[in-house]
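ping. complex inputs:
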Amino acid sequence: MSQYLISHWGWYPPLVYMLMAMLAASLVLLVIAGGSVLFIWMERKVAGRIQDRLGPTRVGGKFGWLQTIADGIKLLSKEDLRPEGADAMLFRIAPYVAFCASYGSFIALPFATGWVGLDINVAVFFVVAVLGLEVFGVILAGYASASKWSLFGAMREAAQVISYEVPLGLCIVIPVMIAGTMDLTKIGNLQSGWFTNWYLFHDPFTFITFFVYYTCALASVNRAPFDLAEAESELVAGFHTEYSGLRWSFFFMAEYGSMFLVSALGSVLFLGGWNGPVPVAAWIFGEHASQLSGVAFVLANVLGLMTFILKAVLGVTVMMWIRWTLPRLRIDQVITTCWKYCTPIAAVMFVGVISWQLMGLPSGGDVLPHHEQGLRRLPGSLRERPFEAGDAVPAANSVGFESEHADRERGQADG
Amino acid sequence: MSTTKERSAENKVVEFDVRTDEMLVNMGPQHPSTHGVLRLVLRTDGEVVSEVTPHLGYLHRCAEKIGENLTPRQWIPYTDRMDYLAGMSMNLGWSLCVEKLMNLHVPEKARHLRVIIAEMQRIASHLVGMGAYGLDLGSFSPFLYAFREREKILDLFEEACGARLTYSYLTVGGATADLPPGWLQKCEAFLDQFLPVIDEYHALLTTNSIFIKRCAGIGVMSAEMATNYGCSGPVLRGSGVDLDLRRDGEEWYTNMYDGYAFEVIVEKDGHYPNDHVYPGVPPEAVLGDCWHRFYVRMLEVRQAIDLVRQAIDRYSSATDSYGEPVKLNEKLPKGEAYLETEAPRGQMGFYVVSDGSAIPYRARARSSCFCNLSVTSELCRNTLIADIPAIIGSLDIVMGEIDR
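pong. complex structure:
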């Protein structure tokens, strides 16, 4: 579109790029703000239903649709309190740091083929790295609040999130290794066709990896049973004990944004992203399904977008379900879960997937006959033929190792 | 530490190591999991708590002094506000104590009515204890499930006496009114409906592996320690001490339960009564830990259901009166009386001294929660911060009763 504006209308290119960037940014902001509004409403409704209550019913008709908006207005009108001993500047910016990290990682998250704020070829890396920065906001908040409870919350968050980055990274590396790329759009497109092409069903190892990923994702976004940083029965409200009004709500937006992000990332990496369980596009458009253009492309993408959002929202719903069912773990148990269970399992899965690919064992996608597979074999896919003995270093694995290495480096930088 | 200091002193080099300090943290009186207005001062080293000091008195309302200025029946509403989660049991304890002083025997029907009400109150109280314990461990929904059922009990109580929390129903001489017609059927219907619900609680909490991880082996209290501190109720029985005043108490009180079949809920040889009905003890649990205290409470709910059912049968077949209350200004005989009853939270004692007038010379209460709370500092030593709500919650304290 920017090309169109520049070449046909003769607009000043930097201005066009800036405009386009702002447009993309505000679209992403809309997604995260709208998403948070929806998720907070959903959380209350889901919690209500799970607990044998109705949840919000008054504001905005029968289902309380506008409850979050009403809450938002209430929060806006609240006094912006700052404790006397607080570090004023850090206290003020902490919610924005947390929010920006969550928001920033949305930029590289594709919602359908080509529908992405910024199409970068290391999107997986970018998303995980930027999301990892959210912990800084929490630590800042805990440190700057001049409250002992906040400090406890921040320390717990630091210990927990940084520990869980390791198994989380290992789990993310596995689909990256299968796909041979860190480009989320490509990873998503590689899983098109039947649902057996999803990396979840690639082999038994990836199947287990998905659940390890989900557990680690829960922990890294501080959701129950890993919500130690704000454990209200122990730490009052943890890191956001001293926050009120809009600043407090920014933490919430960040939390819900991150929840959506990790489950969206999970759905791109394991659940086929915007590809439905059956190759609808391939049935309608036949062989041309991968080279759609114009209205057909938009229609297919809208369908994909809806599929994608549905998957991500399902992931978030499961998070809510877990939150309202399980008690909270203790800090030592959380760390034990990470280092004694998640990390070794993820490592074994990693080796397992490598072996599976090296031995050329059939993946889930090979179960169905080829003519049904629609978009599966895109040009450039590394899975065009199974690896054979005598191949030079398999490209997929080398990329996988690279990304793991990069991940480790990032982990060190974070630590 | 000392070696580092010595070495640096020798080398005349100041070493700046990572300095860790102990931190004093105030937990309460406004804290979500201190069950009211308990204030704990924690001495923490990171997540590890080395010392816990409970501070009381934030809910002190001079109830006992007021009791010296009112007649026993007038003081009944003040007893409601002691253990506000088990108002009926407080009414009962004080009424029985004054009746003992007056040597007043209540009619047969009143006796059974009191068993129905007291045991229903036990269910309601343990439901709060159970639900709030879930909250303390970060599990929200069981709390709501518990309150859903408790609401039904409160509805029944409301129908019987018009109040939902501070009943003043059981009183000196019997009760303020008979149960309304149709009440027993509703009560039975509730029990039938409630019995299967208990399995839900066991599924959500008792057998939940995170729950077991959080409370099995935490806050282990030996039988000796429990008796030394004067613990009572489920806290005592959770440590394996076979003592229940409904069976072992004074005759004046145990008369009420004459002819009722019930087994004291206490572990014997690794098994509880009713063990076959509910999930047994997990291998991680140690006798006297939080899990056992919780489980004893859950089994007592089941036991209370049986008792209410028996009492309903007896009540319907009894022919005499429900027990007219004594006059408001009835003269008390000169003397004194002390009686302990088995309230949901333990042995609730009332003491009354009379100089012969209608107003007691002294009215005192012995709080079960006070003794149960006194073990806190010993149980919480060298635990993690997250264990403190787990331990306090398993003691199931009510500050209204402790501070009075």
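The mean pLDDT of chain B is 86.
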